[in-house]
Amino acid sequence: xxxxxxxxLPSEIIKTLDQAGFTEPSSIQVRAIPFLxxxxxxxxxxxxxxxxxxxxxxxxxxxKTEGKGKEPTTLILCPTRELCMQITKDLQxxxxxxxxxxxxxxxGGQSMSIQINSxxxxxxxxxxxxxxxxxxxxxxxxxxKNVERVVLDEADEMLDMGFKEDLDAILEQTPETKQTLxxxxxxxxxxxxxxSDYMKEPEEISVGEKNKGADNVTHEYYVTANQxxxxxxxxxxxxxxxxYGIVFxxxxxxxxxxxxxxxxxxxxxxxxxxxxxxxxxxxxxxRFKRGRITLLAATDVAARGIDVNNLTHIINYNxxxxxxxxxxxxxxxxxxxxxxxxxxxxxxxxxxxxxxLENLVGKTFxxxxxxxxxxxxEIKFNSFxxxxxxxxxxxxxxxxxxxxxxSKLKHLKK
Length: 414
Ligand code: ADP
Ligand code: MG
Hints:
Blueprint: H1 11-19, H2 27-38, E1 43-46, H3 53-64, E2 74-77, H4 81-95, E3 103-106, H5 112-120, E4 125-128, H6 130-138, E5 149-153, H7 155-160, H8 164-172, E6 179-184, H9 189-198, E7 203-206, E8 217-223, H10 229-238, E9 245-248, H11 252-264, E10 269-272, H12 278-289, E11 295-298, H13 300-303, E12 313-316, H14 323-330, E13 340-346, H15 351-361, E14 366-367, H16 373-389, H17 399-409
Parallel strand pairs: 1-6, 1-7, 2-4, 2-5, 3-4, 5-6, 8-13, 8-14, 9-11, 9-12, 10-11, 12-13
Helix pairs in contact: 2-3, 3-4, 6-8, 14-15
Bound molecules: adenosine-5'-diphosphate and magnesium ion.
């Protein structure tokens, strides 16, 4: 087993990693970190979601960055604001106590002047979405002439989301001599088109099978007529007492409806989609990360790339429009060596798509029957009993609760 020391990282950073619970490097980190510490060549790195790609590029970049510069030497581009905030937070965490490196994030939806001010204070690493970065360049608030390396994170997503023109314009402003790094979970024609447009004889590192889903995610599906879908969702959720996950929906309207209905059914739910203002989105994400919100109803765009630890389930209330998005959705669970379940609720005429997804992910999807009312009841009852059993009663004992419980529940007996 390789260690972070063997990869060539300095002891200060290893200490920080240790505190963050990073005891040993993931496969992509083992491959990418020594390469990047050593080489100025361009790199395409492919690895499944949740395998630690941020640290794979972030750590060597921090090592190569001299702190306290005015203009950035590293530019990291990623498709969404949530991802942008997350990468920034990760890098700031890794950089704690290391050369005073400043990492600034810029993305749409947040006030331009706040971002311009933080850039003015000096940024060594800028993390941003292509639209906003392009805007800041046009306003001359961001100067890229000192850029030594550019990271394209979730590169093919950026193209799918229509950022091609912004990318062209941004990369045009960066020095010819820079190093370009492309990180992605999926490999598609667009990845290779980026490589041929923007990269010079890139090295390719690929971990795991290309386009395969994360290893520790299992897949299940339920079949129901569309008009019964919400009821099916409720039953499935009732059978999962400690569910903590994301319910993916296809449209903003449907996302909102599902969230509203789940709230009415008593769940801690919020919705995340493009019509919700940035401030509210940030607050929702924070509460979701802390577990205050246990079910997030979200569109693909809003939830792309988000990294919340310990999610137990991903629920596809609708299958995504394109099969490729399924891998991105299911990769929100089973992160950092944890296991997770990706559930799809499909109409009878959609079972053919399940076959396609099985081929894509390279795993069999388990067919599950929607639990009956009685089964839900039994699961809830057992989970309640488990919870009771876990209470430490060593001091006072259970005894007198038994008679009380029996008398309170007597009327239920038929
Ligand atoms: P990816 O970009 O490949 O989808 P991330 O970089 O977002 O994955 O990492 C997924 C999760 O795994 C994050 O919560 C991260 O903190 C954690 N992680 C990454 N590398 C390690 C490691 N070596 N040991 C423990 N946890 C890690
Ligand atoms: Mg990532």
